[in-house]
Structure formats: structure tokens, C-alpha cells
Amino acid sequence: MRLKRHHIYALILSCLLLCSAVSLLFLNQWLSNAVQAKVEVRQVHTISLPPPPPPPVQQQTQTPVQTVTLAVAGQGAALNLTLVPQVKVDIVAPEPVLLTQPPTDWQAELDIDWQAFGLDQLDGLPQLLTPIKAQFPNSLVRQGILQVVVKLDVFIDEQGQVSLIAITDNPHPELVSSIHKLVKTSRFSVPKKNGQAVKARFIWPVEFKK
């Protein structure tokens, strides 16, 4: 009797262990399904683009060749064609002509040797032989200016001719034209040193009056 009870208890215990194992198995499966994220797979329908149109075909246009047919009626004499030879003409370019221009006043002044003696090195002071004739500008007269003194750096050669090197003092630009005219028409006595004609250079004060 006791042996049967032991078998019954063992059977019940085995059933309990089996139920526990099955419960643990289902619990583990449920937990894994709960933790695992759901992955949705969607089907994407792709639209294929139509192929690009073919490049335009360039049609080559052929220029029609005009054919001239000469129909000769009857039996005539044969035509002799004479080819005229081509004549080659050599064109010779003319040689360039170099135009020479005479030197201007300022170019001539550049060739002058301005080395000369000062007034203190001469035997005597050169004397002005021509009167001072210069037009006084009317614009200065309208301003009430009737007298102006300018200073000119001049060069006197061995013949007494005057050349203007520079205008050192001129308060009124209106007198520039009159100064150049005065220098061209002026002449001094020949500067001398030890009795010989020499070149001289000095500052010439000129007074313009109305």
C-alpha cells in the first residue's frame, strides 16, 4: 500500500515538473516576441522611365549637279577646244618711303650747347640793340594791371642772337606768348672775353608796360 502511494507521489511530482518546464518554455517564447521589434516590409513599386529619344539624324543635302548636254544635229566638223594657260603675275610691293621732317624749334634747342660765360666773366655787359616791342595782354589791363616784370634765362651766341632757355619768373601766364615773340625779335651786342667773341648766359629782367 505504501509502495503505491510512493508511485502516485512520484507521478504527481513528475507532472508538476513537466508543467513547470512547459510554462517556462512558453514564458521565454513570449518574452522574446515582446522584445523583438516588428519589422514591416513594404513593397515599393518602381516606375521605369522611358528611354531617351534617339538623336536627330543629320541629313546630308547634296547639291544637285547640273549637267549640260549639247546635242549636235547632223554630221558637223569636230570642235577643237584650246586651253588658255594661266598667267602668273608677281605683284611687287613698293618700298616704303621715309618722310623726313625738319626739326622743330624745341628739337633745335636741344642741340645747342648751353655752356657759356656769366656776366661777371665778360669784358663788359651785352647791350640790347633792339627796342622792346611786345603786346601787353588786354586781359591784364581789364584787371587793372599795367606793368609786369618777368625774368628770363637767356643764351647769347657769338653773333648776339638770343635764345630762351627758361622763364624763371612770370606771375601772369598771359605773357608767355609775348615773351616768346620778344625773344625772337631781340638782339644783343656780341659778348666778348679778352677781346674774343664768346657765348654768354644770364638772367634778363624784362619790364612789360601798357
TrEMBL record:
SUPFAM superfamilies: TolA/TonB C-terminal domain. InterPro entries: TonB_C. GO terms for biological process: transmembrane transport. Residues 135-209 form the TonB C-terminal domain. It comes from the Bacteria. Pfam families: TonB_C (PF03544). Transmembrane segments: none annotated. This is TonB C-terminal domain-containing protein. It comes from Pseudoalteromonas tunicata D2. The lineage of its organism: Bacteria, Pseudomonadati, Pseudomonadota, Gammaproteobacteria, Alteromonadales.
